[in-house]
Amino acid sequence: MIDTTTAFVADLLASASADSPGVVHPRFESVMSHVALEGNAFLLAARRDHAPLTDLRLRRDLSSRAMFELNVDALIAQQPELRRTLTDHLDRASSANETSVALRETLGLGSISRRTRSVPFQSEAAAYVALLKYVNAFGSWEDALDVARSVHAHRKAGAESQRETMTYALAASVLGLCRESAASDDLFAIALAGMPDPIERTFAGLRWASLRAKRQGNIDAAEDLIDALDSDLSHASAHRDDKSVGFGMLWNLRALLAVRRRDPKAAHAAVTRAIAHFEQGNGHRTAAHAIGSEEARRYEWMARLNLIQLDIFAHTFVSAIEKLTILVDFSRENDPGSLHTSLSTLAYVHIQNDDPAAALPPLLESHERLRAEYDPFVIDQVRKMLIRCYIELGREKDAERVSALPANFWLPTEMPGA
């Protein structure tokens, strides 16, 4: 099935980059280029990219689905002959001996989606996403749960290889997401015990703690696990800067748990400590570090944004605006991929602070940045805020122009000014 998926991806990329330059968004090409990766290579690519086009992601994430539909529809509209190529791949996939029942059902649903409108994908072109079933280690959501249960049923006392360790960790995540908590806890415990790298243990443990809090609603158990991870990392042999980033991640999750406990004071203290750890660990990162500089800066940005969210929750908008102005500069210098979010959040707070005129410049820049960063649902929210600002400022014609902008927002358009 991987071979079929790889061929499918190759045809899409060839059509996107060679035959129809500019028709699809550049990030669609970059995401499609890694969907056929396996194992650790895929996990690393998925961690760095917020919208990998796998079946698991497309079932749960509306932005990923919209990303796929917009771009494939744009390609087929430009090149009707591409439909035949994709249909050939679809036929080969559905007739393959190893094709699962879940895959066949999805292929069938996709072919009638326009008539029933009762299936996950509203676009006929999106039926082709069924070819991406097996790229994320397990495949479809139904298959993933079946495989994860089987992994748990046949588990060993300890993982004997890196491949087994990764399999246990993936299966534990799937079971945890489906609220099969006891089985998830069993596999996470085996996986963490089999990970020699303390940084990888910390990341896997953070996933476990997050599932305990969000899916099980067990904040006490999540905090106990964070304390154990903290102790493990303190005594581990790892680069000092990597450990600082790890501690930052642990304190950031502590802050989120404090929010769930409705304890803003504790949340503020925890996220402040997280930022201090990130600042300590992000000074001079090199290739010798286990966590890349770009990734570490993104984690620091997330903690800074969480601190600002506390101001927003408390309606202390002036303080939030001051911090967001600094965060915009941080994004420009350290993490350009986060700039559109920093800008749109700043604009949102200006709107909440009854200052639509101040919101317009960051909104317009955010809209322009989103041409490169890409998220269909975020661009929709930015446009809605722009329309609101223009209406409140008495600029109805500008609001109408924004309303009329095309769905394929990466194509050149003329925007109103500030």
How does the SSE layout of this entry go?
Layout: H1 2-19, H2 26-32, H3 39-48, H4 55-60, H5 62-78, H6 82-95, H7 101-111, H8 113-116, H9 141-153, H10 162-177, H11 181-193, H12 198-214, H13 219-234, H14 240-260, H15 264-281, H16 293-313, H17 317-334, H18 339-352, H19 356-373, H20 376-392, H21 396-403
Describe the 3D structure.
The protein is mostly helical. The chain has 21 helices and no strands. It has helices at about 1-20, 25-30, 40-50, 55-60, 60-80, 80-95, 100-110, 115, 140-155, 160-175, 180-195, 200-215, 220-235, 240-260, 265-280, 295-315, 315-335, 340-350, 355-375, 375-390, 395-405. Helix 18 packs antiparallel against helix 19 (about 355-375). The protein is globular, with a radius of gyration of 23 Å.
Q: How is this structure best summarized?
A:
This protein is mainly α. The chain contains 21 helices and no strands.
Name its key features.
mainly alpha; 71% helix; globular; single chain; 418 residues
**Through-space gap between termini:** 51 Å
* Largest sheet data: none
- Tell me the structural class: mainly alpha
Overall mean pLDDT score? 78
Q: Assess the beta-strand content as a share of residues.
A: under 5%
Using the CA coordinates, give the radius of gyration: 23 Å
Percent range of helical residues: over 70%
Question: Which word captures the global form?
Answer: globular
- Please give the number of β-strands: 0
DSSP helix count? 21
The arrangement of helices and strands along the chain is HHHHHHHHHHHHHHHHHHHHH
